[in-house]
């Protein structure tokens, strides 16, 4: 499946157990590997709460939503700051 950024931003994001996290707000690119490293997920445009979901935490893409591991919420408490997040190198 191929998606434009506009299409990606329209997808809802929820955990495998059905907890709704919000919608894809932005993406963080790994320019060395030319791939998406993380997805920024917000409950709403004006909400300060943000989840950074690693591409490794994606379970699957569906037509109208992205399913992520339940652990994405436990490991990724909502961030209220807009400071950059350090990305780790893949092995």
Q: Please, could you describe this protein's structure?
A:
With 91 residues, this protein is mainly β. The chain contains 2 helices and 6 strands. The chain starts with a helix and ends in a 16-residue tail after the last helix.
In short:
The protein has helices at residues 5-9, 71-75; strands spanning 12-15, 20-30, 35-42, 50-54, 58-61, 65-68.
Subunit organisation of the chains:
single chain
| Helix-strand string | HEEEEEEH
Number of domains: 1
Could you tell me the number of beta strands?
A: 6
Strand content: 35-45%
- Please identify, by name, the CATH architecture: Roll
CATH topology: the name is: SH3 type barrels
Shape: globular
Low-confidence stretches: 78-91
Distance between the termini: 26 Å
CATH superfamily: PRC-barrel domain
What structural class do helix, strand and pairing data support? mainly beta
Report the average pLDDT across residues. Answer: 82
Strand order, sheet with most strands? 4-3-2-1-6-5
Radius of gyration: 12 Å
Total number of helical segments? 2
Largest sheet: 6 strands, mixed
């Amino acid at each position: 499946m191929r998606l434009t950024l506009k299409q990606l931003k329209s997808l809802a994001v929820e955990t495998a157990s059905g907890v709704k996290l919000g919608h894809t707000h932005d993406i963080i690119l790994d320019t060395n590997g030319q791939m998406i490293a993380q997805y920024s997920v917000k409950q709403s445009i004006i909400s300060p709460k943000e989840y950074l979901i690693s591409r490794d935490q994606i379970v699957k893409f569906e037509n109208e939503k992205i399913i992520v591991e339940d652990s994405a919420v436990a490991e990724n408490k909502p961030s209220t700051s807009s400071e950059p997040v350090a990305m780790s190198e893949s092995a």
